[in-house]
Amino acid sequence: MLRVRGNPEQVSRALLERLTSIDPAMSNIITLQMIAGLQMTILQIFFWITVVLGALALVLTVSGLFSVLSYMVEQQAKDIGVRMALGATTRDVVGLVLSQSLRPVGSGLVAGGALAALVAVVLTAAPDGSELGAWVNVFDPVAYATSVLLIVAASMIATLFPALRAASLDPIATLRMD
Length: 178
Known about the structure:
By secondary structure, this protein is mostly helical. The chain has helices at residues 8-22, 32-75, 77-85, 90-125, 129-135, 141-167, 171-176. The chain has a domain at 58-176. The radius of gyration is 29 Å and the shape is elongated. The chain starts with 7 loop residues before the first helix and ends with a helix.
């Protein structure tokens, strides 16, 4: 280890020339800046892997929610048709489908938030938990709020299409089915 003043790359080249004249097997000198840059690159790779996996999970969640709601609207077509025949407006039908879909999303958010808080407490209580706090704030309220808003917005978009399709059902045609 060597501490230098000035440009470490310049000093390392001069030092490497001197050392290779003594021992030709000496081939490389690594600076602390290179090590820090490598650690930052590893953190960036982990960040992008997490972003991609999170986006994939969100896409799978939205597509699953869309599929389940489309099936639910298809199964409840007669009920929706009867409601519309009795005077339910488009707004009432859309509100019904949205409320039925957001209940499970809300309970999932509560359960997921509780599980995330439990994992954060366990991680910080671990023997190396104090070191984790130097890298990541596991109790970041902005991150939790952003996640909740993103999940709710994605769920609303996923439920909007089946809800609008349910509202556009023809009550007469729906009641004549079967």
